[in-house]
Amino acid sequence: MKKKGGGSEVATFSEKEFGSYFTGAESFATNVEDNTAVYNLYQGEKTTPFNGRLTINGSSAIAFTNEFVASEGKDSQSYLFVGLPMETFTDVPDSITLSKTCAYRVGKASTDTRFDNVLSCQVKKLCVVSYNSYVLLNGVTVIDSLLVKENGRADFYLLKPKDGDENKLGNVRVKQNASLTLAEGGGGVLASATSLVNSGTFTDNIGLVDKVKAPITPGDTLLISRPSVSGTTEVAPGGTTTLTVAGFSDWQQGASSSDSPTYNYYWQEWKEGKGWNGMSGKNPTQTVGKGKYRCQVMYTLLVDYESVTTALYSLPVEVKEKSASPYIPPVYSYYTVTLPEVEGARLDKTGSHTVEEGYSFPFRLTLDADYDRSQPVVTIDRHGTETLTPEVLADGSLKYRIRDVEQDLTVSITGIVRNDDPTATGSVPAADVRVRSFGNLLHITVPTPTSARLYDFHGRLLRTALLPAGSSTMPKPAGPCIVVLGGESFKVGD
Q1: What is the DSSP string of 83-151?
Q2: 3-state secondary structure of 369
Q3: pTM higher than 0.70, yes or no?
Q4: What confidence tens digit (pLDDT) does each residue in 315-324 have?
């Protein structure tokens, strides 16, 4: 081991230092100067440094490096799959066999070549004959075929080479009692033209494979396709939806088998910074909220008491929340109510006033003393001519209200004349007026609409009312009172 940049040896691992323990050792450790220095590891006099994969607390990164550093803290740090990179071939080999983890054979060679378990070459045929874990494919091109033989097993991680090239595995075949897994984490892609035939166990944990053929007998082949997820992918804020996955398999040849595969379902949710995480539930349906989801469908057939298993992932489905509808401010309409100035009366509002559509507009009219026998007629120009009915207030004034203003309106006021005007509607001949007291009621008869005022004997106004033509009743005060009708007065009580 040397410091990067051609420094002197820091540590040496050899039979001379370790004696009989050297050949049986599975790992080596050494002290170094500090955790900021970078070191390279060499074999003998060779100038190509070893590669390795950093492992912290047992978690191995899917990346390799030839630069070794010490741990910065208390974490347990080591390097796995340490070895030389795969040799560079002048001519494309006819075949390479992965004989075991970190070892391969070229062509008909009888001895293994050790390497860092990173495949990066072109080869006509690639063969797996035993257990090979964490094999990194760094821009591999298999021209003809990849064969995983019986009892062979391989976990392939597809890396993305610096030139961005795809990994090409050719025609893939997994024999009975063999296993091939495309493992997640390398970030690389697989050429879409790859065909795959599975008679053992095939698992695509990346979601790159669309179709797999499963030859069950010489006459029957089951075509397994990527599962599909359906369901509403837009929900209200905080809402949920139900996603449903469907697996697809069809008998392509023979069609003599009545067996159908069994299905198992494994849902996953994407977590930023953590990748795909498993979800509870093993059903074809899953209730979810906002997020990104996928489902693995595992197809299993029993053939001669042996299971043929294929596991494929659906394409990811993203569930989004509906964006809130943009706020549209209400559109208000405004109208003008115009009131006149009238001789003999005072209005609390005159001139033009703006009123919002649908609202009411109140105003008050008070007769002057010389006009207080008048009977005002107040109208507005709505629906032809609309007459307003007043509310007689305690002080004798008249309160009017125009309801539901939905157009420009003009108020007209007539019927206000001086008290000494012989045409005044408030001047009522005494012969036509009658005021009688019966119990707690006053019975009053007038020939025309008349304003009535009740006073006590001290001159205090007790009540006012606008009486219609004809007979009316109104509550009688507790004590004696004076009833004023137009210009006539009537004493009631002692």
Answers
A1: EPPPPPPSS--SEEEEEETTEEEETT-SS-EE--SEE-SEEEEEEE-SEEEEEEESS-EEEEEEEE-TT
A2: helix
A3: no
A4: 999 999 988 7
